[in-house]
């Protein structure tokens, strides 16, 4: 098995941290998806043209959630409950909206402009951050290593990219601080890439 991603991707980081957490030997290659050779590698293995992706022989797995499920099955780790899996959907939706907004900003769009797409993304991130602020303190949430890692990676990426002021979300800020000692946090910190 081999993982490909970017050091600044919260999705790649969560898989790298998941591997650290469970002491899995998972070789990793950082790709610059805007460099021609690395982009070609990505396209060859992942038609969605996204990172991360995992290769295992002839098998290519093209999504962080599926990679986690594959590793869980291959290494016989505990699976998430349906409630936990639904929380992951909320984290992913929030993360996806932030990615879309960041791409728009980098494309020199004013994401605060009153436009349907921007309004929907901004509404979604605010609602989901409020929702996750309530969920992240529940024992059933904290029992899942992948949920903790995924939320930590989202929050740390928001702070790293200065995407949103989290000051009104006390539980999320406390969660980020508490989980900053998770295995792999230091080794995968995007600030060191």
UniProtKB/TrEMBL annotation:
**Has UniProt tagged this entry with the keyword Transport?**
no
Q: Which GO terms describe its molecular function?
A: transferase activity
What protein am I looking at?
A: Glutathione S-transferase
Which organism is the protein's source? Pseudoalteromonas phenolica
InterPro entries in alphabetical order: Glutathione-S-Trfase_C_sf, Glutathione_S-Trfase_N, Thioredoxin-like_sf
Q: Where in the numbering of this chain does the GST N-terminal domain appear?
A: 1-79
Superkingdom in the source lineage:
Bacteria
Q: In the UniProt record, does the keyword Transferase occur?
A: yes
Q: What is the lineage of its organism?
A: Bacteria, Pseudomonadati, Pseudomonadota, Gammaproteobacteria, Alteromonadales
User: What UniProt keywords apply to this chain's record, in alphabetical order?
Assistant: Transferase
């Amino acid at each position: 098995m081999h993982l490909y991603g970017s050091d600044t991707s919260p999705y790649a980081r969560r898989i790298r941290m998941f591997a650290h957490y469970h002491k899995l030997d998972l070789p990793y290659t950082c790709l610059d998806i805007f460099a021609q050779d690395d982009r070609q590698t990505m396209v060859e293995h992942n038609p969605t043209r996204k990172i991360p992706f995992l290769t295992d022989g002839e098998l290519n797995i093209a999504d962080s959630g599926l990679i986690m499920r594959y590793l869980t099955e291959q290494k016989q780790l505990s699976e998430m409950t349906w409630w936990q899996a639904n929380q992951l959907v909320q984290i992913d939706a929030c993360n996806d909206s932030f990615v879309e907004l960041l791409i728009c900003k980098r494309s020199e769009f004013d994401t605060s402009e009153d436009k349907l797409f921007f309004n929907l993304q901004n509404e979604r991130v605010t609602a989901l951050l409020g929702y996750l602020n309530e969920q992240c303190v529940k024992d059933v949430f904290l029992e899942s290593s992948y949920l903790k890692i995924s939320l930590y990676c989202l929050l740390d990426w928001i702070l790293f990219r200065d995407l949103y002021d989290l000051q009104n979300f006390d539980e999320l800020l406390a969660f980020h601080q508490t989980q900053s000692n998770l295995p792999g946090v230091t080794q995968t910190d995007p600030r060191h890439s």
